[in-house]
Amino acid sequence: MEGHQAQYYPPPSTSSSLALLPPQNPSYLFPPSSTSMNPPPLPEPHHHQQAQVPDIDWISLLSGHHDHQINNNEPAAMVEVNNNENNVIEAAREERGSNKRKGGEGRKISVMKKASRPRFAFQTRSADDILDDGYRWRKYGQKAVKNSLYPRSYYRCTHHTCSVKKQVQRLSKDTSIVVTTYEGVHNHPCEKLMETLTPLLKQMQFLSRF
DNA sequence: CGCGTTTGACCTGCGC
DNA sequence: GCGCAGGTCAAACGCG
Questions:
Q1: How many CB atoms lie within 10 A of CB A189?
Q2: Which residues lie closer than 8 Å to A28 by C-beta, 6 or more apart?
Q3: Which nucleotide is nearest to A167 if distance is taken from CA to C1'?
């Protein structure tokens, strides 16, 4: 991902105000590591685009309430810093396992989780809806969205200990733009990254002997 | 056979 | 209370 200037976002404020980057200022944004949140995964470049044209238009962050949604005109994301997030997720998972029923499984819990999970959203200019971000995702739903020609797809990380979700939706106003919203934090390494790095690390270890 | 997708049903929150 | 919209579940299905 050359041409992208990684940039730290200012620490999330306690207000619910939205902090958006203008599209003409492409950059990756994520909070300082002290917030215990991972940066959003960096999607791989899409070959149909010219090299100098960034795929990522912007990433926006905000902190505040859980009540939000991606507007068709102004995709936005929220981030909520909550150090107890993993506890909440684990509690939800246990509850889900012990209270199975069709359709309504874990409903209240999902609301609880929703209120405490960090979210990142960003736009990508791509013909493909699915970005290869290195993680494995399982699609668990698709819904038609009001005032949008395109449905919203719901994905969950397939890693058994990870409950990160993402939503993918194409803008009806600009069909070349895909809005991806990540919810939660991966608690495991990126598989693809590890696949790539492991042989390199081994080689480095081997060479370091000499 | 395992894993991922599709899709209709169901649940919750919210506005009126 | 009702209807709508968003989010989730899980059976059925497809594919390698």
A1: 12
A2: A4, A5, A6, A7, A39, A40, A42, A56, A59
A3: C7
Pairing label, strands A28-30, A6-8: parallel
pLDDT at A199: 72
Domain range spanning residue A204?
116-209
User: First-to-last CA distance in chain A?
Assistant: 33
Alpha carbon distances (Å) from A54 to A4, A25, A43:
7, 10, 11
- Asked whether residue A26 is domain-assigned, the answer is no
pLDDT of A202 reads 79
> How many angstroms separate the Cα of A158 from the Cα of each of A93, A97, A190?
14, 17, 12
Q: Is the CB of A139 under 7 A from strand B?
A: yes
In a domain, residue A147? The reply is yes
Q: Is the CB of A107 under 7 A from strand B?
A: yes
In this complex, the nucleotide whose C1' atom is nearest to the CA atom of residue A96 is C9
CATH code assigned at A150? 2.20.25.80
* Torsion, CA A60, CA A61, CA A64, CA A69, rounded to 10: 40
Residue-wise pLDDT tens digits, A157-192 = 988 888 889 999 988 778 888 888 888 888 887 777
Number of residues that this document lists for chain A: 210
